[in-house]
Each structure stands twice: as C-alpha cells, then as structure tokens.
Amino acid sequence: MADAQHRVKSGNGNGLVAILGAGSLGRLWGALLPMGTTAFIPRRHAPDEYEPDLTYRFQDGHGHYYPITVPSLDWSTQSPDTLIVTTKAGDTLGALETTLPNLKPTVPVVLFQNGMGSQQAVAERWPNRPIMAASTTEGANRPDSQTTVHAGQGETWIGALTHSASPLITNVVNQLEASGLVIHEEPDILTRLWGKLIINAGINPYTAILDCANGDILDAPLFRDTIRQLCLELADVMHHEGLSSRSPEDMESQIEAVARKTAKNTSSMCSDVRRGKPTEIDYINGYIVSRAGAHNLAVPVNQMLTEQVKLRTDTQQEPQPDTPGAT
Ligand code: KPL
C-alpha cells in the first residue's frame, strides 16, 4: 500500500522537496515521493494566512487508489533542499518572483514546464541560481478536483540551465528517484526539450482547434493538409537555432506515432480550452513563431495554429466540466 510504502521510505535523509504548483504533475510528485519529504508551497495572499494540508485521492499506475496528504510548507521552520516547479508555463515567472526571495540561493530549482521559453526566462532572471529544466513523459491527470491519476508511466530527464546547477544534478536525480520514477541526468537538456516541443507542436493545437482526442487528429483534413509543412518549419527553425534535428519526415512519423499511442488522451491544450483556461500555445507553436521571427523565417502553419487556438480561447463563453488532460 502506497501509504505504508511512504512511511518506510520516509526519514531516509533524503531532504525536503518543496513543490510549487499543485496541478496534476505537482500532485503526482507529492503522491510518489516519500511521506515526510515533500511540502507544497502555499499560495497565501497574506503572510500569516493559514494554508491547510493538501489532501487528494491518488490512483497509481495499477489502478489502485490511495489517500494522500501533503503538508503546506512552513517557511518559518522549514528550509527546502530542492524546489520543483510544476506551474503552467505562463504562471512560472510570477510564481517564482514571490517564492524565490524565501529560498536559499544555493537550493536547486527544477522546472517542469511544457514547451519552451518559460525555462529560458527563469534562467535569465536568476542566472546565479542553480536552475535546471526537466522533460517528462509521465502522464498525470485530474478527472475531478479530488482525484489525481498516474495515467501513463514514462521517464524524466533533468539537465542544467545555469552554470551553478551542473554539479548538483546527480544529487537532485538521486533525491527524485525516491519516487520510484525513472529519472535520467541529461547533459543536453535543450535538445531534449525541443524533442518534446516537436510532439506538442504537432498534436496539441490540432486537438484544441478540432476539440478532439489525440488519435482523432490523424484523419482530420486540417492535420493531414498541414502536418508536413509544420514539420518543415520546425526543422528550419531548429537549424537556424544551431540545433541538429531529425528530418521533417521523421518528425511527422514520430508525431503520428505519439498521437496513435495516446489516441484516447485529451491533450493538455484541448483540456485547457474546454475548461476556459489559458493555454500554453505561446510556449509551443507561439515559441516557434517567435524564434522564427528572430531569424526572419516564415512559419505560416505555426502562425495559423497559434492564431486559431487563441481564437478558441478568446471566444470561449461557457467553461465545460473538467476533462482528463495530460501533464
Ligand atoms: O504531452 C502531451 C500533452 O497533452 O500536453 C501529449 C504528448 C500530446 C499527450 O497528450
């Protein structure tokens, strides 16, 4: 039983992991790291405002349910050894502006955001802090506000974004491995993040525009008519960014393979649109558009998808009920 397992694993000198962002991924870490070694960062409006423990039901990869309680971090008595940041890309800089003044400058900060751009913004804002980025294929969703589901077992790669992060990576990987998840040190985290960006750029906006599950994009004319051009644009931008990329044909096959493998999933972006929440389009296809602009390249498909997704969120009237999304 997870709770018993947590008790056995607790107090192993693993250090305290603070979690900023109580969405699906933050709750996945909160459920899997040993009990007594995690705390959620409170989002208080006033410094003395009481923040209750976070309690939820967790469904593990085998379909078993466990009750989870993760305490709220008490800054006056606790000092985290690692901070993992699982906020939405667009909320990250603001959340860290209020959190980092409380955190020792030597504590590693691990960024789990989707897409690209928010990680670079954090590393540029705090160049002297040990900032790391993570890319994960773990799937988690929240079918309702009380439940978090570990929907797909994956792997996680962690790499340094700032100079002072490099010597701390091994420790952080060891610390997070106590969750039982598969974690790797990644010497080339930018290429790894781009790999995930390609998948998200080729699936998420189509599902959001067509309002469908991942697998349903494969036969849709919008996808069929534009995916090759999208991949040509991605390869062109990557080349100008000085990154080696796979061929557009390989990218297309990989996007289709992931859409097939996750056919029944509601993508994170489709889920955001359905719930009337801001999407991460600016950090996915919007990021490609902005990097293309820096190199004077035309990326009409990425531009069109970015505009279409924004149109969907701008015109959204009534948020629909919660739907299972990916990380
Ligand atoms: O990462 C995803 C997401 O939804 O953001 C994919 C790979 C598309 C799986 O749903």
Task: Briefly note the structural class of the backbone.
Answer: alpha/beta
The CATH class name of the largest domain reads Alpha Beta
Mean pLDDT: 91
Q: Counting H and I runs of at least 4 residues, what is the number of helices? A: 11
CATH arch. level architecture of the largest domain: 3-Layer(aba) Sandwich
Helical coverage, percent range:
40-55%
Query: Which topology of the largest domain does CATH recognise?
Result: Rossmann fold
- What is the general shape? globular
Strand content: 15-25%
Distance between the termini: 24 Å
Tell me which ligands are bound: ketopantoate
Could you give the order of strands across the largest sheet? 2-1-5-6-7-10-11
Low-confidence stretches: 1-12, 317-327
- Per DSSP E runs of 2 or more residues, the count of β-strands stands at 11
How many domains?
A: 2
Order of helices and strands: HEHEEEEHEHEEEEHEHHHHHH
Instruction: Classify the oligomer.
Output: single chain
By CATH, the superfamily of the largest domain comes out as NAD(P)-binding Rossmann-like Domain
Short key terms for the protein model shown above:
seven-stranded mixed β-sheet; disordered N terminus; four-stranded mixed β-sheet; 2 domains; 11 strands; N-(1-d-carboxylethyl)-l-norvaline Dehydrogenase, domain 2; 327 residues; globular; disordered C terminus; binds ketopantoate
